[in-house]
Amino acid sequence: MLFSPRIKARGIQLLLGRVMSRVHEDLQFTDIPAVTETLRVETGAGPVTCTVYRPSDTAGDPAPVYVNFHGGGFVIARPEQDDHICRYIAATAGCVVINVDYAVAPQRQFPVPVDQAYDVTAWVAENGAAGGWDGSRLAVGGHSAGANLTAAVCRLARERGTFSPRLQILDSGPFDQVADPATKRSLIAKPLLTPQLMRIFTAAYVPDPADRAQPLVSPSFADDLAGLPPALVVTAENDRLRDEGDAYAKALEAAGVPVIHRTFEGVDHYFTHTGPVPAGKEAIDLMATTLRTALND
What we know:
Blueprint: H1 5-20, E1 36-41, E2 48-53, E3 63-69, H2 83-93, E4 96-101, H3 112-126, H4 128-131, E5 133-143, H5 145-160, E6 168-171, H6 195-205, E7 231-236, H7 242-254, E8 259-264, H8 271-274, H9 277-296
Parallel strand pairs: 3-4, 3-5, 5-6, 6-7, 7-8
Antiparallel strand pairs: 1-2, 2-4
Helix pairs in contact: 1-6, 2-9, 3-5
């Protein structure tokens, strides 16, 4: 029996969601206390729940703010998989972190996650006084699918002139949703992302192939990157998504966007969650220190 992409995606959610979002125990930063609260933001695509992480030192002026989008192939809705990153960034960068529980496919397909991601970020930028952060000092970032959403948010913010992120963090993102995943090569025999899994993710999120070349779906297809926020682009040497991440970093740089691009050697997709631990910690620290500089410059 052949199952539809929608049924396959639901199967992944129900059977593999918890496993796929598991974080290596030595990357959980349990020594850093989490000061959190829950926030609900109304968007044009429905209400979105967010977890707010605050730095322990809250004295003085309101802290800057970072909006985070988790990964999971646009299918796995587990923002808690980024708890370790959010906790570390809040403590190390000294900023408020908003971890966004955006809607996922197949229940909510493109453009709903993009609309929610943008609306939440715009709300964060506009409501600093009420939220207890400085919305004028804002950055945005994400991991895997979350990096794709980050690129979309930055593009919409530039087009609409609503807010100007000081930094975008793009960690191991899928930036080309058009190419057959089988053409995306890895240097290792059994990478984390298989072509079959990637096809399920894409078909569930963007069921109409005609939409997959849109820049909000495939940032690699955008030809007008000038004026986007400075970027930290993280890629993994053995990741099937490495080439498109490298290419997007070069395209941003060619368009005059300030770019810090780091490819971590000997690691695969999502190493900031699954390890190896030394590389994962180094990458997360790079994100936090780059954020601290960008938000306090």
